[in-house]
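Please review this one:
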Amino acid sequence: MPRKEEPPQEPPSASTVDISISAPALDVVQDTLTRFLDTASVTRVYGEPQQYGDTVLIPAAEVLVGLGFGTGYGFGSSKEEQATKEKREDGWGGGGGGGGGGRTLSRPVAVIVASPQGVHIEPVVDTTKLALAAITAGGFMLATLFGIFSPKRLARRIAGE
């Protein structure tokens, strides 16, 4: 008796697939984010305010946090559906996964000094950063000057090109 072929089934739409995240997965994400943001805390990086007699020193920092994450899900036909299509190549399938990453950056920018004479801010100057910026700017200026006053360019100007 000849076997009757069934028409291929369409994959389910995204609205019919249950992609809910279980509570333990949410706990892991929340714990990870909490620990991640805790690394950028001023007290974690620079310590608690310090008191010396009547003077209190409070560290101030610039804190940058960047993070991203994502997930993707797919779906496919079941093993029973695949078995009925032994010699057909129109089966479909999918999968899922996720990932993420991030970075925190903290750097001191000032120390707030509170004393009986008043409150004032002492900036923290990063001389290494200033030196690197000056070297970079100087390099770009030299490259521009070499481009403007190159011998080939001057020769073309003199020749009238």
